[in-house]
Predict the structure.
Amino acid sequence: MQNIPWHVLHVLSNHENRVAQHLTVRCVEHYVPLYREKVKWTDRTKVTERPLFSGYVFARISAQNRIAAISTPGVLRVLGDDLRDMVSEEELGRIRQGLTGGLLLQPHPQVPVGTRVRILVGAFTGVEGVVSEMRKQCRVVLSLAAVRQSFSLEIGIDDLIILDHPTGAPGTRIIPAYGN
């Protein structure tokens, strides 16, 4: 079974655990990475487990169990059909090790370069810009219209709101005027 790659099953939102139960009954090896999150209600705080990759379940699908996997209630489709669309044992092993080792793994939105955003905190609250780079922090390019110059600001992804995704051709950037 070790030589069978891990496929990615796209499943109905919030049905990851139900799909996992069905796959267990159908004898299909699967993995749903779960992280712990504190949920605050009006009267109490509770720690719950949520899928690290919402809407996805990893499964080892062989020729013998392919129909069993894709006909599972809640499975929408299998992503990709070649090796580059599959997840390696090493990648999933690192995620398992991180979660069991107590590392704080949480979902993080992927914001593509060229996305227009609005800053929510600090001296630039309300200013719009374009994401120019993603590293540990998000780098946003802002422009000062009066001098036709731009500057960048590094800011946490949680301190931004996405306005729209890039629409131009690859490599082109639209930089708005400062304060728009």
Notes: The longest strand covers residues 34-40. The chain has two domains: 6-100, 109-180. The first helix runs from residue 16 to 25. The two ends are 56 Å apart (CA to CA).
